């Protein structure tokens, strides 16, 4: 099923006084690229989370955020009482020697001084025990992300179907017109040559005219390009309807469609076909834009 690279999902749970929140955002990108935002205590889980994201998301730019709020004392910062005592003694000495009109010591400011508040030395076993919660939340968020990606992918697919249908309509018009291009050229050439030769009273050699028309017919033959364009469109539609992770295949096919269309325009030498080629290229440009956001 077609899926977009753009998506957003979140998941949260509270376990043993600890609140966990996971958020995943994905955007389009040529390859897989991830940015992980984890609390300091959980940085050891980065490789595991990275692997989960890489295996699931496959392609695109993804941002993973984990927030943890502990209502107990496990992750509470510790106050270095010796550091506080040292700062207080130093400040009291300064105030004694240099009184500043009733200045007082604000304990809350002391807590901001270097070395006073220190992160807890958390037992690695306690941290490791949280992995099962984080893993489950990540899986849940990834499932929600894919649900959103598939939903947006169906919107993209509907748009692609419209453009493919429009291209095939123009393709059929070109195919119908292609047979008359050589006949029109032969009639115009015959008319011009007869006019020029009539002025000098010289008869036209029919063999020469036939040879010139044959050269033009070979040069302007677009049947092969029309056949390949039709084949690319059929393959594009089939892949979009039946496979997963097809973004790069569809990008390649869209580029091939454009190449065949450009060749048709340059070889046909016909104003009506040229207008249809411009129309097709407009639809292909839209298809290329859409395929850049398909997983």
Write the layout of secondary structure elements.
Layout: E1 7-15, E2 18-27, E3 32-37, H1 46-57, E4 60-70, E5 78-79, H2 81-97, H3 107-110, E6 117-118, H4 124-129, H5 131-200, H6 206-219, H7 223-242, H8 247-268, H9 271-291
Walk me through this protein's architecture.
It is a single chain. This protein is of the alpha+beta class and 295 residues long. The protein has a domain at 78-118. It has 9 helices and 6 strands; from the N terminus they run E-E-E-H-E-E-H-H-E-H-H-H-H-H-H. It has helices at 46-57, 81-97, 107-110, 124-129, 131-200, 206-219, 223-242, 247-268, 271-291, and strands at residues 7-15, 18-27, 32-37, 60-70, 78-79, 117-118. It has a 4-stranded mixed beta sheet, with helices on one face. Helix 1 links the parallel strand 3 (32-37) and strand 4 (60-70). The radius of gyration is 36 Å and the shape is elongated.
């Amino acid at each position: 099923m077609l899926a977009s690279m753009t998506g957003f999902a979140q998941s949260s749970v509270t376990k043993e006084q600890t609140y966990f929140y996971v958020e995943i955002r994905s955007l389009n990108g040529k390859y897989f690229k991830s940015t992980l935002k984890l609390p300091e205590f959980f940085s050891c889980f980065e490789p595991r989370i990275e692997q989960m994201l890489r295996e699931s998301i496959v392609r695109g730019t993804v941002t993973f955020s984990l927030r943890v709020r502990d209502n107990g004392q496990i992750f509470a910062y510790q106050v270095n009482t010796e550091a506080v005592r040292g700062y207080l003694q130093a400040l009291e000495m300064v105030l004694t020697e240099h009184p500043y009109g009733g200045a007082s010591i604000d304990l809350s400011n002391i807590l901001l001084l270097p070395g006073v508040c220190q992160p807890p030395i958390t037992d690695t076993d306690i941290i490791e025990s949280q992995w099962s919660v984080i893993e489950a939340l990540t899986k849940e968020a990834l499932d929600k992300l894919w649900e959103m990606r598939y939903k947006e992918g169906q919107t993209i697919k509907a748009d692609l179907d419209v453009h493919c249908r429009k291209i095939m309509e123009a393709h059929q018009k070109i195919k119908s017109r292609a047979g008359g291009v050589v006949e029109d050229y032969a009639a115009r050439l015959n008319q011009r040559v007869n006019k020029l030769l009539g002025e000098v009273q010289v008869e036209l050699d029919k063999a020469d005219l036939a040879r010139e028309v044959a050269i033009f017919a070979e040069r302007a033959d677009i049947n092969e390009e029309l056949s390949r364009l039709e084949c690319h469109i059929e393959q594009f539609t089939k892949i979009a309807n039946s496979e997963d992770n097809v973004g790069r295949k569809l990008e390649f096919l869209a580029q091939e469609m454009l190449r065949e269309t450009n060749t048709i325009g340059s070889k046909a030498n016909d104003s009506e076909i040229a207008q249809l080629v411009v129309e097709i290229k407009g639809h292909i440009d839209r298809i290329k834009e859409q395929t850049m956001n398909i997983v």
